[in-house]
Amino acid sequence: MLPFMLPLLAGLTIPVAATAAGPAACTKIATELGSAKVNANQLSTNYTNSLEYWNTIQDEYKPSCIVFPSSAQDVSVSLKAIRAAGSRFAIKAGGHNPNTFFSSVQAGVLLDLSSMTAKSYDPETTLATYEPGGIFGDVYEYFAQWNRTVVGARLAGVGTGLALGGGMSYLSPQYGLACDSFRELEIVLPDGQIVTASDKENPDLFFASRGGGGNAYGVVTKYTVQSRPIGEFWAGNLIYVADQRDSVIEAIGNFIQYNTDPKAAIIGTYEKLPLPDLNLNLDEAILMFLVYDGPNPGDAFKNFTDIKALIDTTGIKSYNEVVNMPVPMSTEISRGANMFRVGVHRPQNNSYEKALDKWRTWAEDNKGSYELLSIDFQPIPKSLTDASKAQGGNAMQMPDGPYFWLNYLITTPPGMTEAKYNAAQASYRDMIKETGNDEGLPLFINDANKDQNPLQTFSTFKKLQAIKKKYDPDNFFADYTGGWSFA
Length: 487
Ligand SMILES: Cc1cc2nc3c(=O)[nH]c(=O)nc-3n(C[C@H](O)[C@H](O)[C@H](O)COP(=O)(O)OP(=O)(O)OC[C@H]3O[C@@H](n4cnc5c(N)ncnc54)[C@H](O)[C@@H]3O)c2cc1C
Ligand SMILES: *[C@@H]1O[C@H](CO)[C@@H](O)[C@H](O)[C@H]1NC(C)=O
Ligand SMILES: *[C@@H]1O[C@H](CO)[C@@H](O)[C@H](O)[C@H]1NC(C)=O
Ligand SMILES: *[C@@H]1O[C@H](CO)[C@@H](O)[C@H](O)[C@H]1NC(C)=O
Ligand SMILES: *[C@@H]1O[C@H](CO)[C@@H](O)[C@H](O)[C@H]1NC(C)=O
What we know:
Layout: H1 5-9, H2 18-33, E1 38-39, H3 45-50, E2 65-67, H4 72-85, E3 89-92, E4 109-112, E5 119-122, E6 127-130, H5 136-143, E7 148-149, H6 161-164, H7 172-175, E8 182-188, E9 194-198, H8 203-209, E10 219-226, E11 228-229, E12 233-241, H9 245-258, E13 264-272, E14 284-292, H10 302-305, E15 311-312, E16 315-317, H11 319-322, H12 330-333, E17 337-345, H13 351-365, E18 372-380, H14 382-390, E19 403-412, H15 418-435, H16 461-471, H17 476-480
Parallel strand pairs: 2-4, 3-4
Antiparallel strand pairs: 1-2, 5-6, 6-10, 7-11, 8-9, 8-10, 12-14, 12-15, 12-16, 13-14, 13-18, 17-19, 18-19
Helix pairs in contact: 2-4, 13-15
């Protein structure tokens, strides 16, 4: 689809032996796991189905084979074979991380975790377990039979890799990030050992895995988490036209600073379309997500509902309906040449207005560089950071809220030349750099671009470096798969 992307994005250092090493690893794995779990046929349906990424540029990479492990043991055998052959590899859960080579691989082994979907619930302890395959929508549907859920994605279509990067949920202001609810993980280490990580066993590994990123310290093959109750929600989207831009950003800023009800969560998103503006403002829309855990939000969202909206879908919803806002399948519909960047700010000094202005100016000046552009405001209230702390704190050791994470999306048009693609990405990057970030706050890795080196913004960076060194001592993961830099 975008053939020019291959030479562009395959520019990572791929070891010279990779082309021979991939097939060698595949042969070994097929011998040990049986051919039913290893697919090297590029024309078969489950090979091509597996190569669906939210950043579709990655759909073009061709692994030497795709391995579909069904247990930690299978993952262990695979990692040992990959290591012995010196092959590149990638670990894929839901495939939504847009950074190339994080869950995709060219001429190496793709470990597709999609067959690992076992789940369980213990009503006595209220602990839930899930394996890394599948999407959060399926995970939620399973636990809903007990009126319970796990803290995970806000959109049903996202995969479980989200939790290893922290994981922002509509429930996070009450319970912390997805990773804060981890109680025990089963992890296959880079050397193939299968271990447990919890407060008691390998607590350093447990610490790093709570928001310190996927594909760094091993492969998580089972999550044991504290489940949470769910009932009726009051939720929906408000869509505003551009005329309401200033009122809505003011309401977002006030919500970030003053909302104290932990059952209330929002995402504020501004979108720009490629249409010419023509002073009609039809190229811009504002999409608010309002979610209240309970049937009556009181005045929590009054600042938004008081602004006249073009479309209003708010009302009583089940959790399943909440995670399918604005429309079911929205993660699938939004597949494309997508890239994320992240920002973090405290709400003082109208930082939210400044960030929005800067982004809008770029959007107006760079028509033709994007098919879709958005900026999302994601509040981190003090209740969230308190809930995180109360559970031991995560790999970010989050400073007290309130602050907010910005997610900047750029979807480039299909067929863009390589030079234009590079120029658009670099220019978007520079604009975001100029906006700057507030000191002492962590960049959210789930929304980060690889070149933003988010781990370096964590106060725990040195500790994470040491843990990485301990569990990946010979740099097997660091050198043979993509991921965040520890340097
Ligand atoms: C449409 C959309 C909506 C989103 N909504 C949210 C949201 O509400 N909240 C939020 O926090 N983030 C959200 N994100 C960001 C999302 O959390 C990241 O993109 C995340 O990386 C996706 O995980 P995945 O399993 O789908 O992707 P993958 O690309 O499969 O995995 C992400 C990374 O983790 C690694 N990994 C995955 N599973 C394992 C494992 N078991 N062991 C070791 N490493 C592993 C992969 O190698 C990869 O590097 C959203 C992204 C998109 C595109
Ligand atoms: C591929 O799909 C077929 C049938 O849909 C299934 O039998 C097989 O186990 C799958 N996996 C691999 C690795 O081919
Ligand atoms: C879940 O909640 C519904 C609605 O309140 C109730 O009818 C049902 O009995 C509950 N199920 C369980 C397993 O508690
Ligand atoms: C709504 O906005 C007003 C200022 O106009 C502010 O005082 C109030 O705290 C805001 N409420 C919420 C929940 O954001
Ligand atoms: C806001 O601006 C004041 C005055 O310039 C400055 O002292 C303060 O540090 C700023 N606060 C933040 C959070 O940026």
